[in-house]
Amino acid sequence: MNQHLHETHPRIVKRLKRADGHLRSVIKMIEAGRPCLEIAQQLHAVEKAIAQAKKTLIQDHLDHCLEEVVGPLARDRRRSIDEFKEIAKYL
């Protein structure tokens, strides 16, 4: 398998491991019968952590892998790539 690592990958792994631990604690909260509001708040935090990890991964991919594929471009074509990368920040 081709190893494909970027500078952000260790931070993403750290964030996902933290989210994994947090999710495990949410499961325990549910099993312990904690109030739904508390559980929902904690699930929201896990969801945000995972979404941020995904966003970081996608942005990193666009910043590095896309650049490798397209290579040098004329200014007018470069603008399209830059706009694509910019709008992807809203995913």
Automatic annotation (TrEMBL):
Annotated GO MF terms: DNA binding; metal ion binding
Matches recorded under CDD domains: NreA-like_DUF156
Gene3D superfamilies, per database record: Metal-sensitive repressor, helix protomer
Pfam families reported for this sequence: Trns_repr_metal (PF02583)
Any GO BP annotation: negative regulation of DNA-templated transcription
Family, as annotated: Belongs to the FrmR/RcnR family.
Designated name of the protein: Metal resistance protein
